[in-house]
Amino acid sequence: MGEFKVHRVRFFDYMPSAIQAMAFNRRSDRLAVVRADGALEIFNFADNYFQEKLIPGQDGRAVEAVCWVGQRLFSAGLNGEITEYDLENLRPKYTMEAYGGPIWTISSNSQGTLLAVGCEDGTVKMFEILEDRIQFQRNLDRQKGRIISLSWHPSGTMIAAGMIDMIRIFDADTGHATHRLLVERGVGASKSREVVVWSVAFLSDHTVVSGDSAGKVQMWDGLTGTLVRTHLVTKWDVLALAVSQDESSLIAGTSEGTVIQFQFISSTVGQQDKEWVRTRTFKNHSHDVRALAHTETAVVSGGMDTQLVVRPLLDKVEKNTQESALRKIAFPHRSLVCCAKKAGLLLFQFPDHLELWRLGESDGHGKPGDILPVKRKPEKLIQLKRKGEDHICCSALSPCGGWLAYATVSSVRLYRLQFNNNNISITKVSKLPKILHSAHQLCFSSDSSKLFASSSHSSVIVVALSQSECKYLHTLKPKTGSRQPVHLLLCSEDGKWLATANTGCEIHVYNLHKLKVNCHFSIHVIS
User: Fold this and answer.
1) Is 463 a residue whose pLDDT tops 50?
2) Backbone angles phi, psi at 405, to 5 degrees
């Protein structure tokens, strides 16, 4: 290996957004994570926790909760809208106004036929889940305060709603409230202090579990409406709850950054009767734990410190294996940095803008491992603010440094860069081919004469670039007929080959001289 200089880039001020909510799909082993900026990420737990899909956020889209219904994904937020996502084209499929003010929570019954949302105006609104849309069905009995949390009984006949100072249990068939569970403020608390029931879980034995702002995890009898047990776990808020599939384990996330596990076991040896016993405390976060998921073998948590933490339960996994390792997912699994090698430029991608930097230079020489003196410091050349409300989903910089492109879910923009000594000018290419209206990934050819944009159904649009025009050439389509989005796109140095990889674990290699598929591979993941 020859000698080369390494640039330590310390001027990319990337700041991930806080985790707001999450939902785990046990059938597909997929975890949906919603960020505070409205971005939606999907992790494949069967494939080494890989972030296989990302739907960028949008200005004004404040997502508060997310919910799986089979293979469909819904979210709701403080803008009062319910959104279903198109997981093939990585964009919102449609948005529906609930007409109840801000929505705090969303939940579906286990049968996958009804969707319930809790609104600011005190209503629980029920929507029927149709084949391609949802349709408003009715309101449950209106309450005086906002509905903050919801949980269906597994039978689908009852639903528990967390509010301020109380929990309501509704009959899902009649829509009437059957019980009112009053939540105490706690010892020494002011009478004026409200208790917010941030999370509820309705178990199959009709136990209702609640977590509140007074730091309590409480177990209630959902049939009689009586309090069974109180666990004071923190001086601050219990923000989230999650239950294992067999309902033998329960986890609670707090604003102290801790996750507390409860297990349904006998409290003394030889006793037959079981109860909820606090067994473990995990401290893997520095701030609020806002979202939790309980898989068969691990506790998954996220919150204000932006990290997604997968904490294995050592009694459920084999020790000293890859599965038993603690994981902290702090960085994105996609590239946000593009390098123009020939021009010595770097392009940094943020949700709302791009930054173009020139690398620093050193004329020093030294031994391997030496830190060389900097002759010219790195310099920010351009900060380009995106147009519209949609956040940037991908970007690219040509190897020569003369072209820059970025895409959102609704548009693609291309710019011409020209350098004259220390001056730089940027010009938007106004006329793009109509077919180039969105892209999941962007890539330039090694000679900067072509732009490749991955489109729907794993296809790739090829556009020729010249000083005078931007011309559509061809659409490369996979032979497999895959509908999954492309998440990796790379052109060979000799300009002859283009490789794509999609989220269906398929790799296609195209011959750019013949503009057709040369070969393809399918990788089967064994979970």
Assistant:
1) yes
2) -140, 150
Task: Please give the average per-residue pLDDT across 497-526, as a whole number.
Answer: 87
Ramachandran angles phi, psi of 118, nearest 5°: -105, 125
What does the CA dihedral 509, 512, 518, 524 come to, rounded to 10 degrees? Answer: 10
pTM given for the model: 0.92
By the 10 Å C-beta count (0-12 exposed, 13-18 middle, 19+ buried), 48 is classed as exposed
Backbone φ, ψ for residue 456 (5° rounding): -70, 155
Helix, strand, or coil (residue 2)? coil
- Lowest-pLDDT choice from 263-272, 281-290, 464-473: 263-272
DSSP letter (8 states) at residue 384: E
Residue 176 DSSP symbol: -
Q: Of 438 and 65, which is predicted with more confidence? A: 65
Report the 3 state secondary structure along 143-154.
CCCCCCEEEECC
CB 222 within 8 A of CB 264: no
Cα–Cα distance list, 489 to 7, 173, 268, 409, 514 (Å):
25, 51, 59, 17, 18
Between 520 and 7, residue with greater pLDDT:
520
pLDDT of residue 465: 93
Q: Within its chain, how far is the Cα of 139 from the centroid? A: 30
Give the Cα separation of 152 and 458 in Å (integer).
38
Asked if 146 contacts 122 with a C-beta cutoff of 8 angstroms, the reply is yes
DSSP 8-state assignment for residue 276: E
**DSSP alpha helix (H) spans, 343-501:** none
DSSP string, 36-103: TTS-EEEEETTTTTEEEEEE--BTT--EEEEEEETTEEEEEETTSEEEEEETTTTEEEEEEE-SSSSE
Expressed in angstroms, the distance from the first to the final Cα of the chain is 38
SS3 call for 122: coil
CB 505 within 8 A of CB 522: yes
Cβ contacts of residue 421 below 8 Å, gap of 6+?
none
Inter-CA distances, 387 with 353, 406, 419, 470, Å: 9, 11, 24, 20
CA distances from 196 to 122, 143, 199, 365 (A): 14, 15, 9, 64
Confidence band of 527 (pLDDT split at 50, 70, 90): very low
How far does Cα 387 stand from its chain's mean position? 23
Report the pLDDT averaged over residues 9-31. Answer: 93
Using CA atoms, how far apart are residues 355 and 313, in angstroms rounded to an integer? 42
**Length of the chain, in residues:** 527
On whether the CB atoms of residues 198 and 149 are closer than 8 A, the answer is: yes
pLDDT digits (tens, 9 = 90+) for 99-147: 999 999 999 999 999 999 999 999 999 999 999 999 999 999 999 999 9
Of 64, 27, 58, 28, nearest to 43 by C-alpha is 28
